[in-house]
Write a structure and sequence with these properties.
about 850 residues, alpha+beta, 4 domains, 6-stranded mixed barrel, 6-stranded mixed β-barrel, Alpha-Beta Plaits
Length: about 850
């Protein structure tokens, strides 16, 4: 231990004697470790930070492999609760749905779910205020009660007396019985729930559409007890492994088939238990594969740390030239090779720990920037990156790794056999050319390695930046400029379907009357934002092909196509009356027309939806559109008249004279909506461009692009001093050579060209290796994850390859040019006298 402390004190003195080297080394390590810490913090939030429930790893979702998936009627959930030998308890909740919450004079939009009374107890969560649900809250027809999230309670005014008050949920009264603890918004990491409603509340909160369905199928309602589909989630019994639970559950679940309709029963024989998704409830169908993205982030962070350590290792070896005499004397006095290695490793450890401390400062600043710049969309829980215990441990591991990577190789090289040969030069003059330390000049191949790793990161960075630029300018098939969008909730207590339909028509007429508005129209879902419902259609005529074609379904009114600027290819648009009297008409896109009939001539034909017998007439054909930014293959669309909207988007196209300044109309549009009915809730009002920019897909694309660009710039920043340092040292050791060359007639330009040419050889090696590695990595990742997160860009992208190579080449040229210019200014007489 005394030896270690002596080495530590000596390391302090040596680093203090070389302030320039120490400062550059600390900055290099601070960048490498700090960025690595930031990236681990991101991965920690997404992959390691526990979900705010008790033992989340013991929660599993019951589902069938086909057809019904994970949604079942409550009577099936009750059977699972009663006849199981694998769960301590089973709760269930409905799919999340949009809602508007209104308390006193404040309102907010969010998501709701209906739950069984044991929902919170199974998750191991107790309300922070008020009470949990009781078993009799499941009884249909009881007073609607709900538990409010802490975030929703804050947005609604932080009323300390909120418990027991009545809140409006989509226009239906509901009594608040509890408020969840801060930070809990559901059983998954990124989904966000604002209010949990008792299952018994469902019967008193039915929309007119639900009531109409129940009236048409009363036996089904009696059979299911509740008009809802629910997702059952169970907590495994202690000590029971998932594979064993899977086997036992399948044998038990076979009896559940008798509860299914015969048509459904044949398609749901295969039951599975699936761990509750960590990220999104529907993450198994999602197009963002977060675990793979986390792997990319960590891989990039480790690569950046390797670049920093290679850079520092080269600097240590360069500085070792000035310590050759010291190391030789230590060896002559009896210091063994491993004793010298130990001393040099202690110096590397001291540097790494100091760099790690500065890295934490860099990480804190970076996390603050991330928290302020990467705001999660409203439907997701907010991200909070912080320096917690796992992140501190990751920083400590980074310091130890940096010690080995940046200290072990230089220590082994500096303590090699040539030290003894250096004894011959301890007395008398010594020649730079004959100095044995010349053999210690850091291998330029290590510089090539830095450049290769930098190429990998830069190529990925430019790839994602190119994708983000494409996404920012992507359109569904119509432009965003000169358009406004308002998301309006028509669900007001006492408003019938007829009233909602009339209000929609009044809003359109009022907007059309404004001199600054060219067209106005409604739709139920927005492209590049909402998840569209799927449909399957075919031709009604039995003589036609009866192949069902999958497509996306959207409800629109007569003015929608004109408002968004979608031209009509054939036929006509909907009329205002068709949206009021349940007309059986449809408009399809040209892609669907060609799928239904090869020549696309389907105008006037009758279309029939899956499992229906009544057809609808195709009255118009419009161009194809894409409904997601990252959609690789455009899907067909069918449009039906919107009738009595509960929530809908109002699209407004402003006059050409106001294009670019449509923000000025937002306040007036909100006032006009209030004048139609002041009880209507406007959840959002913005330009269509801002609505697109603030969507989830654009947020994800921007986040990945921003992180990757940060990686690329950091890699370039770290690699540049490495190139400069190696070239500078090489030039310094070759001063006599340059003097002789210039004495024999070489010009400064000749010297500059020679030095740069030598640097370009190793730069070319680095670029070739880096490009080969990057192309191999991108080829593999392209089939696994990149195709899900890139917009209109292939994994092997010529632009990204060219941009990365040019950036590295220019940076390397600049870093090598400064030492080359210094070599060209050498005075031959001074150089020869020095030699």
């Amino acid at each position: 231990m005394n030896t270690f402390f002596n080495d530590l004190r000596y390391a302090f003195r040596m680093l203090a004697k070389r302030p320039g080297f120490t400062a550059i080394a600390l900055i290099t390590l601070a960048m490498g470790i700090g960025v690595n810490t930031i990236m681990f913090s991101v991965v920690n939030v997404l992959s390691f930070r526990p979900v705010n429930v008790k033992a989340p790893e013991r929660l599993v979702k019951c589902k069938t492999a086909r057809f019904l998936g994970d949604q079942f009627t409550p009577n099936i959930v009750e059977r699972i609760r009663e006849d199981n030998a694998v769960f301590t308890d089973v709760m269930a909740f409905s799919r999340y749905g949009d809602c508007t919450l209104k308390l006193a004079n404040l309102s907010t939009s969010g998501q709701k779910t209906f739950v069984l009374s044991n929902y919170f107890s199974v998750l191991g969560v107790t309300p922070d205020r008020g009470r949990d649900f009781l078993p009799n809250d499941e009884t249909p027809g009881t007073e609607p009660v709900g538990v409010l999230s802490h975030g929703a309670w804050r947005r609604l005014g932080r009323d300390p007396e909120a418990i027991g008050k009545v809140i409006s949920v989509n226009g239906f009264p509901c009594r608040i019985i509890g408020i969840t603890p801060a930070g809990f918004t559901g059983p998954t990491l990124l989904d966000k729930i604002d209010i949990w409603l008792s299952l018994g509340s469902k019967a008193n909160m039915l929309s007119e559409t639900d009531q109409q369905r129940i009236a048409q199928r009363p036996s089904w309602y009696d059979y299911c007890k509740y008009p809802a589909f629910m997702i059952p989630v169970g907590r495994l019994k202690p000590g029971l492994a998932l594979p064993d639970a899977q086997t036992q559950f399948r044998s038990m679940a076979a009896s559940l088939l008798e509860l299914f309709h015969p048509h459904v029963r044949a398609k749901n024989r295969y039951w599975v238990l699936q761990p509750l998704p960590r990220y999104f409830l529907s993450s198994e169908d999602g197009y963002f594969r977060i675990p793979a993205i986390c792997s990319l982030i960590m891989g990039a962070g480790v690569t950046l740390l390797c670049i920093a350590c290679l850079n520092l290792a080269n600097m240590v070896i360069v500085q070792g030239a000035s310590r050759h005499r010291e190391l030789t004397i230590r060896t002559a006095l009896g210091g063994g090779r491993w004793r010298i290695v130990q001393q040099l490793l202690v110096e590397a450890l001291l540097l790494a720990l100091a760099g790690g401390g500065l890295g934490l400062i860099v990480a804190f600043a970076g996390m603050t920037l991330l928290n302020n710049s990467i705001a999660a969309p409203s439907m997701m829980q907010p991200f909070v990156f912080r320096l917690d215990t796992p992140v501190f441990l990751a920083t400590l591991v980074s310091c130890l790794v940096a010690t080995l990577l940046s200290g072990l190789w230089p220590a082994l090289r500096l303590s090699g056999r040539h030290i003894m040969s250096g004894m011959k030069t301890l007395h008398g003059g010594r020649s730079q050319a004959s100095d044995p330390i010349g053999r210690l000049v850091p291998s330029s191949f290590s510089v090539a390695g830095q450049l290769a790793l930098s190429v990998v990161l830069l190529m990925g960075a430019f790839l994602f930046v190119h994708s983000a630029a494409k996404a920012a300018h992507a359109t569904p098939g119509y432009g965003f400029e000169g358009k406004l969008v308002a998301h309006i909730d028509f669900r007001v207590e006492g408003h019938t379907r007829q009233i909602r339909s009339r209000l929609r028509r009044q809003l359109v007429d009022r907007m059309d009357s404004l001199p600054d508005i060219q067209a106005a129209g409604f739709c139920n879902l927005m492209h590049f934002g909402d998840r569209f419902s799927s449909d399957e259609v075919k031709m009604l005529d039995p003589s036609e092909s009866q192949r069902e074609v999958a497509c996306k379904r959207q409800l629109v009114d007569a003015g929608y196509f004109n408002a968004v600027g979608m031209p009509l290819l054939q036929g006509r648009y909907f009329t205002a009356e068709e949206g009021m009297n349940n007309a059986s008409v449809a408009i399809i896109d040209e892609t669907l027309a060609r799928k239904l009939r090869p020549d696309g001539n389907v105008l006037g034909s009758m279309l029939v939806r899956w499992k229906q017998t009544q057809g609808v007439e195709i009255v118009g054909i419009v161009p194809e559109v894409r409904h997601r930014i990252l959609e690789k293959q455009i899907q067909s669309h069918v449009y039906y008249p919107i009738k009595e909207p509960e929530r809908a988007y109002l699209i407004l196209r402003v006059n050409d004279a106001l294009a670019g300044s449509e923000q000025s109309l937002l306040k007036r549009i909100r006032q006009e909506i209030r004048q139609v009915d002041e009880r209507l809730v406007v959840n959002s009002l913005s330009t269509l461009s801002d609505h697109h920019r603030n969507g989830f897909e654009m947020w994800a694309v921007r986040m990945v692009a921003g992180l990757s660009l940060f990686f690329g710039i950091s890699a370039l920043f770290l690699a540049t001093p490495g190139v400069y340092g190696i070239k500078g040292y090489t030039v310094a050791t070759r001063i006599p050579e340059f003097g002789i060359r210039m004495a024999l007639g070489a010009t400064g330009r000749n010297i500059v060209t020679m030095v740069l040419r030598e640097g370009w050889i190793f730069m070319g090696i680095g670029l070739i290796i880096g490009m080969a590695c990057a192309l191999a990595i991108l080829h593999v990742l392209g089939t696994l994850i990149l195709k899900h997160v890139l917009c209109d860009v292939q994994a092997i992208d010529p632009f990204s390859i060219s941009a990365a190579l040019i950036a590295i080449a220019l940076t390397t040229l600049l870093a090598g040019y400064i030492p080359a210019r210094r070599a060209a200014k050498v005075d031959p007489m001074v150089a020869l006298r020095y030699e």
